[in-house]
């Protein structure tokens, strides 16, 4: 078994950290979106992390294998990541049955002590399978598809102690809570002062290359906010609606009238173009 450091997701992110650019970690819900994301990566010569939700693994059991086939055959570095895996038995099933490169072991709905203990145990098991591990420190508010909403739990900003605690339980990628939310910020993006760039910068300094940084909650981000987060130390940019909204909008407008094959083709084109634009923004274009 190759050491986890040679893991595909970590190699992609190590190169991004060394080169001061960001890599899109893009959610796909179906084969069309998956295909469009990979086409964008190849046309822009950009690395890419494909993300699937645990709920999608249940809904479309073959999608992970399609993604893994792209990981194997694409002309650029691509890896397959499972986002927000919150159920220990599902995480174990994923490790044992699916060709994934990395998993977000998200125990953030437990209190800190339990979160750390469960994360430590699952991280060890993932590493034994060559799978890299991401974890969320602090608590990012909101909920996404199939993910336990943090509900009335209070959002907690990541503290320096949190950072050390999570590094100690041997994770590879840290997703800090710096004012980012799972959900919509509104048309113009995060309000002035909502994202704590200084906190992100000091977390990055403190980490000093021991782990990599993932940024969650990028819906409605303007380009300059994305760039600023990357400059402040985020290398893995989790994107969902930020890319997919153009695809949703295209389907909303055209699904009733357009023949299916044409709808599929043009929908993929729309998503590919939007993905290419964000690869340019993140600075990953031309880096593969
Ligand atoms: Zn997230």
TrEMBL record:
SUPFAM superfamilies: Aldolase. The active site is at residue 83. Pathway: Carbohydrate degradation; glycolysis; D-glyceraldehyde 3-phosphate and glycerone phosphate from D-glucose: step 4/4. Keywords: Glycolysis, Lyase, Metal-binding, Zinc. Binds 2 Zn(2+) ions per subunit. One is catalytic and the other provides a structural contribution. InterPro entries: Aldolase_TIM, Class_II_FBP_aldolase, FBA_II. GO terms for molecular function: fructose-bisphosphate aldolase activity; zinc ion binding. One of its GO terms (biological process) is glycolytic process. The keyword Repressor does not apply. Coiled coil: none annotated. Pfam families: F_bP_aldolase. Its cofactor is Zn(2+). It catalyses: beta-D-fructose 1,6-bisphosphate = D-glyceraldehyde 3-phosphate + dihydroxyacetone phosphate. Zn(2+) 2 binds at residues 106, 136. Zn(2+) 1 binds at residues 84, 182, 216. Its EC number is 4.1.2.13. Catalyzes the aldol condensation of dihydroxyacetone phosphate (DHAP or glycerone-phosphate) with glyceraldehyde 3-phosphate (G3P) to form fructose 1,6-bisphosphate (FBP) in gluconeogenesis and the reverse reaction in glycolysis. Belongs to the class II fructose-bisphosphate aldolase family. This is Fructose-bisphosphate aldolase.
